[in-house]
Structures are given as structure tokens and as C-alpha cells.
Amino acid sequence: MSLSVGIVGLANAGKSTLFNALASRRLSETAPRPFTTIDPHEAVVPVHDEDFHRLCDLIKPEKCVPATVTFIDIAGLVKDAHKGEGLGNQFLGKIREVDAIVHVVRAFSDEKVSHPHTSHPVGSEHQILEDIELVNLELELGGIEKKPTIYVLNVDEEKVNQVGQLTKLIEEKFKGEVLAIAGKLEEEMIDLDNVEKAEMFKMLQWERSGLERLILEAYKLLDLITFYTIKGEKEVSAWSLKKGETALDAAGRVHTDFAKKFIKAEVINVKSLLDIGSWKDAKEKGRVGLEGKDYVVQDKDVIEFKVGQ
């Protein structure tokens, strides 16, 4: 499934910093200048899924393949982009191709990094709302249809949990999900191992990183659910599927031949399978359902497709 999320924002908002953290590598060279990201970069990012990890622990396959979300770091927007200013034409062209938007808004203070589009104090409510309105206006003037949007407030580390009122205001005014993320800190955590990250989360009183929250919200924004397949002891895979799609659609996600030669689908919810302990026992207990091609796949279904020759 080629659904993708474009990361957009004004120059120096921290888009590339956020992208670096998402990609867990430093693909985007960042610098305090108006046009940092000239060519869009792409990162296929795994979706954190406890049920998937538990399923892998149960089956112990040779390979585990998680569901993913594709993020694209798009060239920084400038005022009058719809007239072709700066990288406007490239920007608008790439935005048309994505299915949803992560709009990064500068809400951090750094005297070394200029803000070329505001006369308000950086990090103030006025500046943040003005930035959002400017980008939305450029998209509208550029003929971009309204796309599902997550607004990411790129804040200083100490302010991650201090923007609740502003978050509510933005959600009401712009009708989108809002997350506060300390982009610079998230990027710095790229090089930490799992133990060090756990210690950092405990110190910051985080249940999960801002990036995990963003990836999960992007997955929801794209209206996706997850189903799983088990290939003997070789592979457990998580697959994304549009909510409301059928067993036949799911079969086609796994392999085009599965859709062409579809006979039936054996289905069980992953939590039921985990509780029972094995596919064999689940079948013996009558917990595995038999479904046809029109069955609407449910989130967290484990499916075994039966196909013809």
C-alpha cells in the first residue's frame, strides 16, 4: 500500500530534524537557511505494535515484518509558494502526491535559528497561529485540496507537557490532531540504546516517545487497520489495510495471486490467538472463523488465506 504522509512547514520550523528522528538516521542535512530540504527524502517507518511483538514472541519465526508508514520530507515552504516563489512549485507538486500531512510548526526558541516570517516573539501563541494560517493559505491558493492533517508543535524539551491550552485552541480552530514534540531531543535520542532510552523516558515521565505517538496518529489519520499473517515458522507479517476493506483486498495486499485464486480466509483475533497459544489449538477449540471474500477485515485479525492452484 503506497499511502504516504508529507512533512511540511515553514523554513526553520524543524521539519528535517523531525524527519531525521523518524528515519533514525541523518538523511536530511539541516541548516538555518530558507531552503534546507531541496529534494524530498523518504522514510518507511515501522508502526509500534505490542500485539505484533507478542505474536512474534509466540511463533518465534525466522523473520518479523512490521506494518509501516511512509513519511516524506518535503522542501520548506515560503510565502507566495503558490506563485512559484522559492521551491513553491516543487513543494505543491509533492504535496499533491501524499495522502496526509504532518504540519511542523516552530514553537521553540533558538536565537541562532531565524524565523523569516513573523514579527511576533518566537514560540508565542500569535506566531504559532500565524505560521499555521500562512501554510494553510499557501496550500489553498496553490489549489491543494484539504488533506487530513496532524499539527506538530516543535517545542523546547521542557515545554512538551505545557502546551495543553494551545493544543486545544489549534484543534478547535484548524480541525486537526495536535502533538507537542521536542524534535531536537528526539533526534538526539537516535544514538541511544533501548536501556538508555528507557532511562530517558523515566526521567521525562514519558510512556512513549513523541515519534511513536506521531507514527500511531499518522496511521490512524490514514484510516488504516492492521492484520497479520503467519507463514509457518518462517515469517510473521503485519499488514496495513484501509478500514472497511475486505478479505479479498487483504489477500491482494499479501500477493496478487492470493486475490486471483482466493477460496476462503481463516480468521481469528490476535488477542484470542495469543490467549490460546497456537493456531492448531485455536482451530481445535473452534475459535478460527471461516470467511468469504466479502468479509470486512477487523483490526488485529490474524488471517490464513486458502487459495487455489
Automatic annotation (TrEMBL):
Tell me the InterPro entries matching this sequence. Answer: Beta-grasp_dom_sf (IPR012675), G_OBG (IPR031167), GTP-bd (IPR006073), P-loop_NTPase (IPR027417), TGS (IPR004095), TGS-like (IPR012676), TGS-like_dom_sf (IPR023192), YchF_C (IPR013029)
What organism does the record attribute this protein to? Candidatus Woesebacteria bacterium GW2011_GWA1_39_12
Q: What Gene3D superfamilies does the annotation carry?
A: 3.10.20.30, P-loop containing nucleotide triphosphate hydrolases, TGS-like domain
GO function terms (MF aspect): ATP binding; ATP hydrolysis activity; GTP binding
Q: Which UniProt keywords apply?
A: ATP-binding, Magnesium, Nucleotide-binding
> Can you say what this protein is called?
GTP-dependent nucleic acid-binding protein
The source's domain of life comes to Bacteria
Q: Name one GO cellular component term.
A: cytoplasm
Record keyword Nucleotide-binding present: yes
Segments forming domain TGS: 223-307
Coiled-coil residues are none
Record-annotated OBG-type G domain positions: 3-201
Q: Report whether Phosphoprotein shows up as a keyword of the record.
A: no
